[in-house]
Amino acid sequence: METTVLPLYINGEFIRKSPQFDNISPVNGQLVSKVTYADRADVDNAVAAARAALDGPWGEMTPEQRSALLNKLADAIEARFEDFVAAEVQDTGRPLSVARSLDIPRAIANFRTFADMSKTNVSTSCITYNADGSQLINYTVRKPLGVIAVIAPWNLPLLLMTWKLGPALSMGNTVVCKPSEETPSSATLLAEVMDQVGIPKGVFNLIHGYGREGEYLTQNKDIDAVSFTGESRTGASIMKTVADGVKEVSFELGGKNAAVVFADADFDAAVAGVARSSFFNTGQVCMCTERVYVHRSIFDKFVAALKAKAESLVLGAPDGADTEVGPLISHKHREKVASYFKIAVEEGATVVTGNRIPEFGDDKDGGAFVLPTIWTGLNDDARIIQEEIFGPVCHISPFDDDAEVIKRVNDSKYGLVCSLWTTNVARSHRVAGQIHTGIVWVNTWFARDLRTPFGGVKASGIGREGGQYSLDFFSEITNVSVKY
Ligand code: NAD
């Protein structure tokens, strides 16, 4: 069978050429497709096309017309739902059920939500009373921010890319997108659908490649802003690159998220919730829990229950009827996660379960699987407790009182999310208010309402996206002041 070659999409043209890089399945190590590398000229052409498109038919559309087009786009994704599921699953190896229930529905919702919000967005106004009796009517006018560089990671490829594209396009911007080198397929399919529904040429451009190609994009002086999701150190590097041009940035970065289980928690709900927050998507969600703090009075019971849950999880291929946990994204990423198996032992951790690569005796042995892993016994300054691992792993520590655990949760360079498990309502509010993260969940995890702010503090990010926060980032406001 002929190998598929994924194209770039620049100024409404699909471009297939050499050189190309390999897209490898994390399930069995086999070639999925070849991907066209963007060179610097391609990236510059994409930015130029995006710049020109701001003044084309796209720039002349009313918010209602743009909104109608984005809803048409959402309908077209829905019409090719299973193609998108297949694209996401072949690159990530995640269970089909996850792509069907999370990735693709959320991508559709990202377009529909922001299509509606941008249409109903209102400007603000106020009247100034001057000493000479004259007055000013002040009102705001929102304009597109311009050409946006959208750079996305591999862990929730289409979901995270469209989380930026929905608001960016609905506010009239044009974009140059770079998906991760690990997950180029769903973004390429999205380009096909953009083309098919008639998004004007140059509005959405797609380039493929690694960090170097991402840098071609951020180094281009003609972009107006960068919306980036990925590792904190990549964010730092992008920030340096765009500093001279004083470009706006919105960064959703790494995490080392905690879950706190109080003695009064609904025990079974907490075990199920922490198992999900630690092992869902093979631990590859920026919001996953890698630090668990459990009240000492229920510590042993909790560790035993989470161990049983972790050991019951079924690892397998995406189409396995019982599969709950897929592989990591790549062998390279597995090397990183497995290096922490070694570090944990060197640091003196007690291995409760996992801490190794499984053997299946079939072609999955060519994949990038690891066992769900639980450790205990380390001090808070251990690397296992401080560094983002981004795998199906967690360390569980006992705690004695609320003030102590709040301090320990906040003792991190990251600050993305935290989950509290308690039936005491007053405690949940009191503690949540003192946790230094962008999101605190109580008795739940990964509960998302697209209107709410999403983002992190400290090394976990800059700014917030979601609802009005996204519309604010992806637009410029001019205050018009009229004297009368
Ligand atoms: P990464 O930073 O390695 O790569 C992200 C993207 O940036 C990729 O497209 C990559 O090719 C590109 N890139 C790499 N170097 C670049 C550079 N110097 N200039 C421009 N672009 C560059 O991240 P990853 O490994 O793909 O994703 C995992 C990370 O993302 C984890 O740290 C995770 O916590 C984080 N993440 C955060 C959120 C959030 O919302 N806060 C969500 C998902 C993932």
Automatic annotation (TrEMBL):
EC numbers for this chain: 1.2.1.85
Domain Aldehyde dehydrogenase: 18-480
Gene3D superfamilies the UniProt entry points to: Aldehyde Dehydrogenase, Chain A, domain 1, Aldehyde Dehydrogenase, Chain A, domain 2
Keywords tagged on the record: NAD, Oxidoreductase
Pfam families to which the protein is assigned, alphabetical: Aldedh
InterPro entries: Ald_DH/histidinol_DH, Ald_DH_C, Ald_DH_CS_CYS, Ald_DH_CS_GLU, Ald_DH_N, Aldehyde_DH_dom, OHmuconic_semiald_DH
Family the entry assigns: Belongs to the aldehyde dehydrogenase family.
PANTHER family xref list: 2-AMINOMUCONIC SEMIALDEHYDE DEHYDROGENASE
Name the record gives this protein: 2-hydroxymuconic semialdehyde dehydrogenase
